[in-house]
């Protein structure tokens, strides 16, 4: 029996299915993805819902699959999606006022006005329309564009049917919830692509104006710039990170591969994941998590291969320092020849006020930028300006890379997809397959900055920022300092696939947001350019803990999916293993049981000593002492490393160094005294179970949350928001999000367990607002229903047929 016939049988047989036929009003006439009017065209799909509101979307082609995806995403996340579409249309100031802050999911803009000025400039210049017309593989394929068209039509169809029934208070009755176009969908993808490049510099791009007679803005020294660039470009302590590990078949119980993916993303806003299965019979069948607004599965698995991503250390932008014409600061010189900047004049409508018009300045290298964050000013003076190069500003290929993954049948297919489209802007890829292969590649779209080019063309500023942070600042006055091209690269000015750090078929490949160097500690990767990341440098405690864990798992062998589940939720705190015993011993020996706080006041800390000694070194909800150590270590970790550790970092022993807490460092005593004072003032017992004071509130009910912050080194990373007046950590800003543990047995159905930590919908009135959050709290998983027989057996199966009336 064919798949299509089986689906028809399941839909009409007496399986006690609850079926809804959604006949929707016709949308406006359809058009190509670059069309500016709402999309339509008689599209349809079947959406089958199983437990936790997970949709399994079936359609006959990519346009119809996009339709079902757009419809189902809107049903769960219409307010978040609509807010993002307001952003990429440059209309935040119009609806929310110019001085309010965006949610930062689609850019770094501090205020709505700068966000609007940038995205209006993208619209007015036709940037994305031009990219949509570039032939594949340098541009998006027909399938990718059709999925964008379908997504817009599906979103609009849901909105037309349900606008008056929106229950989410975030946008109920809001005028800014409007139909969208395929171009809106494409621009949202563009915004995600440039997050690490132009997206970092939006305030500096939109504020850049030629110098006047007023004194120029103050700059920073090269040393200060290097420190600021390190902070700006660090993948640690950011709102996006991840862990992922793939095990080769030699380490598993049945010789097949295993993959555990644990992306750390924001819990609110437009960078949430949304879970689904997408099927075009005979063409594509994939399940996983998609970033909101994406038409494809971002992280997932099919019947044969599973993959995840981790935020990579590659620096996706560079600067060109311009030498200006002394007579005109809007003219720059290249090999002595004048080049006039291009003006991009942008007008933004503003709520309750006159429109704002500003001019942006563009060069052959990219836009003029006057800062990369407040700590890294780049003043435009009479003699010098800086232009930002972002190769992802010409990359609209990520959907094609994801489609390639979705259709792959092995890790070799994953690699081919990476090479063919080169569409991933800022992530690594880790994969495993049913044949037992493991795979890692840092295949990013990066500016082609070789160490040789940086050595010969860096300005004094770049001589400081490139070695320290990987941020190249090149001499823009010399044509010889332009970025070159690799023959195998999809677009000019980027590295080709042959230059990407890649490791295949080692017992494990693992990444926790450090560089590719220790992907496997027994097989260090070297030889890549500094712009990709560092080698032989100190790793984060999360990387160190992860390598300890997965190397031990690989050595033990006979691994199963259940071992991945245990690793994800073990909540071991590697920092606790390193220092808690030393702190407890030192604490017990303090004269009079007192330590001096940062305000100079002696504090009785004696009650903390036994709590730290008895702490189980984990951050489970029932762990006593975890909260005390968490608050202590956040303060102690600020002590300079040279003072904090007795044994410094050693590149020959990178997993075990630095180590040996120096309890004599003054900052350690202050940290403990301040922590005891803080918790007592909040009325929190030093030995309180973590879950009593680390929780989220959903519909008025507390849900305890395990896991912990970056500096504790925990695989199950959670970045909670400290609010002692409300009980401690009362919300989560970012952390574990769409988690998947995937393996294979002898059947055609993958063995997969998933968790969407913050649940499928952000609507507090949805039944799927907190159901998976409660699972996460209880350390329980969702058993993936991938095969037809498993979907049909779901006790909560509901079939919805959605289509447009012709």
UniProtKB/TrEMBL annotation:
Gene3D superfamilies, per this entry? 1.10.1400.10, 2.30.120.10, Glutamine Phosphoribosylpyrophosphate, subunit 1, domain 1 (3.60.20.10), Penicillin Amidohydrolase, domain 1 (1.10.439.10)
Q: Which UniProt keywords apply?
A: Hydrolase, Signal, Zymogen
> Is Ion transport one of the keywords?
no
Question: Domain of life of the organism in this record?
Answer: Bacteria
What SUPFAM superfamilies does its record include? N-terminal nucleophile aminohydrolases (Ntn hydrolases) (SSF56235)
Pfam families attached to this UniProt entry = Penicil_amidase
Q: Which GO terms describe its molecular function?
A: hydrolase activity, acting on carbon-nitrogen (but not peptide) bonds, in linear amides
Coiled-coil intervals, chain numbering: none
GO biological process annotation, one example: antibiotic biosynthetic process
Q: Which residues form the signal peptide?
A: 1-22
Q: Give the family per the record.
A: Belongs to the peptidase S45 family.
Q: What is this protein called?
A: Acylase
């Amino acid at each position: 029996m064919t798949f299509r016939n089986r689906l028809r049988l399941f839909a009409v047989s007496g399986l006690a299915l609850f079926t809804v036929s959604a006949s929707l009003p016709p949308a406006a006439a359809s058009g190509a993805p670059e069309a500016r009017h709402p999309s339509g065209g008689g599209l349809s799909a079947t959406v089958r819902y199983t437990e936790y509101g997970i949709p399994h979307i079936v359609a006959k082609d990519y346009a119809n699959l996009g339709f079902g995806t757009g419809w189902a995403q809107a049903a769960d996340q219409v307010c978040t999606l609509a807010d993002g579409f307001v952003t990429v249309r440059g209309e935040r100031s119009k609806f929310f006022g110019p001085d309010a802050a965006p949610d930062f999911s689609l850019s770094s803009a501090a205020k709505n006005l700068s966000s609007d000025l940038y995205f209006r400039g993208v619209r007015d210049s036709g940037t994305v329309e031009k990219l949509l017309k570039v032939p594949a593989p340098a541009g998006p394929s027909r399938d990718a564009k059709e999925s964008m068209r379908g997504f817009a039509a599906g979103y609009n169809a849901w909105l037309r049917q349900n606008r008056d029934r929106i229950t989410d208070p975030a946008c109920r009755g809001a005028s800014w919830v409007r139909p969208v176009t395929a171009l809106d969908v494409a621009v949202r993808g563009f915004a995600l692509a440039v997050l690490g490049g132009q997206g970092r510099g939006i305030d500096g791009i939109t504020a850049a104006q030629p110098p006047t007679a007023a004194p120029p803005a103050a700059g920073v020294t090269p040393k200060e710039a290097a420190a600021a660039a390190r902070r700006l470009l660090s993948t640690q302590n950011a709102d996006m990170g991840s862990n992922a590990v793939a095990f080769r078949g030699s380490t598993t119980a049945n010789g097949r591969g295993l993959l555990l993916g644990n992306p750390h993303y924001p819990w609110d806003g437009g960078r949430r994941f949304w879970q689904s299965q997408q099927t075009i019979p005979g063409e594509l069948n994939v399940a996983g998590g998609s970033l909101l607004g994406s038409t494809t599965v971002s992280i997932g698995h099919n019947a044969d291969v599973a993959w995840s991503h981790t935020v990579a250390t590659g620096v996706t932008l560079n600067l060109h320092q311009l030498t200006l014409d002394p007579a005109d600061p809007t003219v720059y010189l290249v090999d002595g020849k004048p080049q006039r900047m291009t003006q991009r004049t942008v007008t933004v409508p503003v709520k309750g006020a006159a429109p704002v018009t500003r001019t942006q300045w563009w060069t052959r290298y990219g836009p003029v930028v006057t800062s990369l964050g407040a700590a890294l000013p780049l003043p435009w003076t009479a003699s010098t300006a800086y232009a930002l190069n972002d190769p992802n500003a010409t990359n609209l290929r990520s959907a094609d890379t994801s489609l390639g993954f979705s259709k792959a049948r092995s890790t070799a297919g994953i690699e081919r997809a990476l090479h063919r489209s080169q569409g991933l802007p800022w992530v690594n890829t880790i994969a495993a397959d049913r044949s037992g292969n493991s795979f890692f590649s840092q295949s990013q779209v990066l500016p082609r900055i070789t160490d040789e080019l940086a050595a010969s063309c860096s300005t004094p500023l770049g001589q400081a920022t490139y070695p320290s942070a990987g941020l190249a600042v090149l001499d823009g006055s010399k044509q010889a300092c332009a970025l070159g091209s690799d023959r195998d690269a999809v677009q000019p000015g980027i590295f080709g696939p042959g230059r990407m750090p890649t490791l295949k078929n080692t017992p494990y490949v693992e990444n926790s947001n450090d560089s590719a160097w220790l992907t496997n500690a027994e097989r260090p990767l070297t030889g890549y350019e500094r712009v990709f990341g560092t080698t032989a440098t100190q790793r984060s405690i999360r990387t160190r803990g992860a390598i300890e864990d997965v190397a031990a798992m690989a050595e033990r062998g006979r691994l199963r999916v259940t071992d991945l589940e245990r690793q994800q939720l073990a909540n071991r705190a590697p920092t606790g293993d390193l220092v808690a015993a030393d702190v407890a011993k030192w604490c017990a020996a303090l004269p009079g049981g007192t330590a001096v706080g940062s305000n100079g006041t002696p504090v009785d800390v004696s009650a903390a000593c036994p709590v730290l000694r008895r702490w189980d070194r984990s951050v489970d909800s029932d762990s006593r002492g975890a909260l005390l150590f968490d608050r202590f270590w956040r303060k102690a970790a600020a002590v300079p490393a040279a003072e904090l550790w007795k044994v410094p970092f050693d590149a020959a022993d990178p997993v075990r160094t630095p180590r040996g807490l120096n309890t004599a460092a003054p900052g350690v005593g202050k940290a403990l005294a301040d922590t005891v004072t803080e918790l007592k003032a909040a009325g929190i017992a030093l030995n309180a179970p973590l879950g009593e004071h680390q929780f989220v509130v959903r519909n008025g009910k507390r849900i305890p949350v395990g896991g912990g912050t970056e500096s504790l080194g925990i695989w199950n990373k959670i970045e909670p928001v400290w609010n002692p007046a409300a009980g401690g950590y009362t919300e989560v800003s970012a952390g574990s999000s769409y988690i998947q543990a995937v393996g294979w047995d002898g059947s055609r159905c993958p063995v997969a367990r998933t968790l969407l930590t913050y649940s499928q919908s952000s609507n507090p009135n949805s039944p799927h607002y907190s159901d998976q959050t409660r699972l996460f709290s209880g350390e329980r998983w969702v058993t993936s229903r991938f095969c037809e027989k498993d979907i049909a057996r779901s006790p909560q199966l509901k079939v919805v047929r959605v289509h447009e009336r012709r």
